């Protein structure tokens, strides 16, 4: 089978989308660095398309110290101003500030639970939710579980963690597998 003949979820149309779809989306992630990166990127996406974020991902990694949450938690006003001038990233002050706030909250969760991985995966008893949708129009933008996680994260002081963002996050880190039935990754 040629690479172009592979059946994917219909949104995976560009090379960048295909690479993300095939290698990351819906695959369980347990590394705290990866979990933090995806949380920040999903928040940055609010109001924008995911392809915009994927196109800027390398610039985000460079600007945000490779998503090292320990470094980001220490960002001061001058670093935030520097980020506001970086044309390679989303220059939204509220979103940039949320990355700093969320880094601090992320560390607090690690202190309490041993890892963010333990915290976030506890919502599903460490077992991904595998949905069985025939097409993307059936996939919800949020669920009662994303509502609960969003509510809990907000109580803990996180920003840009609304239910829709959290559901996209759950898909990105593999807590939810929403590959449609005709996608070659559905069985995984």
Portion in beta strands: under 5%
Count up the helices. 9
For the largest beta-sheet, the strand count, sense and barrel status come to:
2 strands, parallel
Number of strands: 2
Q: List the uncertain runs.
A: none
Q: Strand pairing plus helix content: what structural class?
A: mainly alpha
**Mean pLDDT over the residues:** 96
The helix fraction, in percent, is: 40-55%
Give the oligomeric state. single chain
Alpha-carbon Rg, integer? 17 Å
What's the helix-strand series? HHHHHHHEHHE
Global outline? globular
Within the largest sheet, what's the order of strands? 1-2
How many angstroms separate the termini? 18 Å
Question: What's the arrangement of secondary structure elements?
Answer:
Layout: H1 15-23, H2 32-45, H3 50-63, H4 69-72, H5 77-84, H6 93-113, H7 116-121, E1 129-130, H8 144-155, H9 163-172, E2 176-177
Helix pairs in contact: 2-3, 2-6, 2-9, 8-9
